[in-house]
Amino acid sequence: MTEPATDPQLLGVARRLLSARGFRVRESQLGGLADASWLLAENEYFLLGLAAGATLDDLRALEGYVAAEMGELFEAETLGAKRWDSYVVLLASSDGDQKGRPELLRLKYNTRSLRRLISLGVQASDEAVGSALATFLPLPDPPEGGLASPFDELVEQLVINGVAADTAAQAVSSYRSRVPVE
């Protein structure tokens, strides 16, 4: 069997993003593979085993190794309720067009011992990796001065979508006051 191609750049971006968002991150070699690393990331809510490969086929191979590492961890440590918030996260830099393949769906929906989050076609950028990991990342702080009124944003969106500004403002104002619009 040929070893799966890993993506150290993708793994590095993930390590940096998770660390910056309060996760304790440890990188280790995957047992049984000569040149493959994985991340174990933990915060107060989640325990993630993360691997990055080049293709879906690489992820299929890496998944078994990461799941085995996570299984050993579960036997060795008392995780409490976090045991049920543990995930194998697999990122691939290519194969973004393969999202409906049966083997991907079987892997994604195999929840026997661990849940799996799989993202294909992820570039080694903060935005792309952050989007793939969004499930686990805290929401950003609101802007200084608070968030804009949703009603003001609705008026803006109506105008952007072709409704006259005065008509949009009147419709939203009418809705807020519960007076019928004529």
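Above is the first protein from milestone M3; the second protein from the same milestone is given next.
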Amino acid sequence: MGRIPGLALLFLLSSIALLAATNSQTFYLASDVRAGTVRLSRGICEVTWSTSTGSQVQLTIKSEDKKTVTVPARMVEGKQDRTGAVTSVVNGVTYLNELHTRNAKFILENGAETAK
């Protein structure tokens, strides 16, 4: 009888770890970008996000050079055609505006005005 609660706890903990693993994505940044007030270098970065109520999430972006930035974003759930990053150039500065995963789009709230 003591094994059942232990197995249930083990299953629960492994499920939580599995759920946490699904809240991350690796992206390639083709150029240096600014996310919030932090400049991220070109290259591979890993993005993780915290789930919250509603569409507001916190994105944590960690670049290859170990620079980390956390920015607020709005999550729009739904299947995306492509995964990747969307940037814009404003006054010569490249800003990271959106990140697309297979199942969601994240619109960064980094204070950058999108060039139109």
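Note on the second protein: The first strand starts at residue 24 and ends at 29.
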